[in-house]
Design a protein that fits this description.
The protein has helices at 5-15, 25-34, 40-43, 47-57, 66-77, 83-93, 95-102, 158-172, 188-201, 220-232, 234-246, 255-282, 298-303, 319-329, 342-353, 365-382; strands spanning 119-125, 134-140, 146-152, 174-175, 178-181, 211-213, 315-316. By secondary structure, it is of the alpha/beta class. Helix 4 crosses helix 5 (66-77). InterPro entries: Integrase_dom_put (IPR058913).
Length: 383
């Protein structure tokens, strides 16, 4: 999470028995050196040295600012560079874009949370519906940590939405007190399993719903996350998809194109979203003096609520209960979990394995897509 040596030392000291073990900043520095983990100063980057890497990132991350760029350089290339050096680069090579980002105006709304894991909020996003992609996001609101950001061919199937929530619960080992969403019917996919878990662990909640429904515009925090997503992630990837549609490479109405697109693009896009979530959760956002919630890195606030004067309301959940609720509300036999039909998966896997170029990147995506759909069309027409 790009912590300095003193901060790393403090985290280690909090986890060990200091009456039996000791560790110093010098030890942290020595271990880091042994593993080739150079600090920002030791890497000695300049605006010129980071330029080739930023040019590569700009293919898809067309409009992110300095803070997110620092994190993207580290996530994608293990480059540690200061915020100041990136700003120097922007002033030198991207002055117009820098001015444009500074001119954006924000609309403010009030929001409050009692503490970490008081409630989780989630929301769907349909701006990529025309490409056959739907997005879904869940977050912990006090820390600002994104818990999941998933892409699939649907975000309206209750079993699928339930699986996003339950996968996170299984990974964390606990739930929040209450979940929150807008009034879409698909959101019962989380409201019901969450209420079931809470009632099982606390029988006094019988007859209650441990979910908060909001009116339009009331689910503020996820809407803010979508706004940031649209600003910093969407433009480059949206241009990549739109260009293929305009050039006739990808025809969403063509069933073969649709299946090839799902099989090839959705897993690749999920990797890009995972990188985006990692950058978001590991980055210190710009300080906002009008914000009453703690200012810090989302991952650290989420994991160390006490350091920010917050209470953690997490409710520990046994894995057996998670398994039982998953079997009831998110059975993997549901067709919603099929990326493509099984018979097509068999065909396209064989066709993909026969390709010489199989490394999917922004540059090779549509070449691989065209090769697969042309080969499959010929194979299927021969039958």
């Amino acid at each position: 999470m790009n912590r300095n040596d003193k901060q790393i030392l403090q985290y280690v000291l909090d986890e060990i028995d200091q009456s039996m073990y000791s560790i110093s900043v010098s030890t942290i520095k020595r271990i880091r050196k042994e593993h080739g983990l150079l600090s920002t100063q030791q890497q000695k980057h300049t605006p010129e040295s980071i330029r080739p890497f930023i040019v590569r990132l700009r293919v898809t991350l067309t409009d992110i600012g300095a803070g997110e760029m620092v994190q993207a350089l580290f996530t994608n290339f293990k480059i540690k560079v200061s915020h100041g050096v990136v700003l120097q680069y922007f002033h030198k090579y991207e002055p117009e874009a820098l001015t444009r980002r500074k001119q954006r105006k924000l609309r403010r709304k009030r929001f409050w949370a009692t503490g970490v894991n008081d409630f989780w909020a989630f929301d769907q996003h349909d701006k990529w519906k025309r490409f056959g992609l739907r997005l879904h996001l869940g977050m912990e609101v006090a820390s600002g940590k994104i818990l999941w950001l998933r892409v699939w061919w649907s975000n309206r199937r209750t079993a699928l939405i339930a699986s996003y929530y339950l996968d996170v619960v299984r990974e964390l080992g606990y739930v929040c007190l209450v979940t929150q969403s807008d009034q879409g019917g698909e959101n019962y996919g989380i409201a019901k399993p969450h209420t079931t878990i809470r009632q099982h662990l606390d029988p006094s909640l019988a007859g209650t719903i441990q979910h908060r429904w909001t009116i339009k515009g009331g689910n503020i925090k996820p809407e803010i996350k979508w706004s940031g997503f649209r600003r910093s992630f969407s433009p480059g990837f949206e241009d990549l998809l739109e260009a293929a549609v305009q050039d006739g490479i990808y025809i969403p109405e063509d069933k073969l194109h649709m299946f090839v697109f799902r099989w090839l693009v959705i897993p690749w896009m999920q990797l890009q979203l995972d990188n985006y979530v990692n950058r978001h959760n590991s980055r210190l956002p710009r300080h906002n003096k009008k914000k009453f919630l703690p200012h810090g890195i989302p991952n650290i606030i989420f994991e160390r609520a006490q350091d920010y004067g917050l209470q953690d309301f997490k409710v520990v959940v046994p894995s057996e209960l998670v398994d039982a609720v998953t079997a009831e509300y998110a059975p993997r036999t549901d067709p919603a979990f099929e990326l493509v039909p099984p018979w097509f998966d068999h065909k396209i896997t064989a066709a993909y394995n026969a390709l010489e170029q199989r490394d999917v990147t922004e540059d090779t995506l549509w070449y691989i897509f065209s090769s697969l759909q042309a080969g499959l069309r010929a194979t299927l027409s021969d039958r």
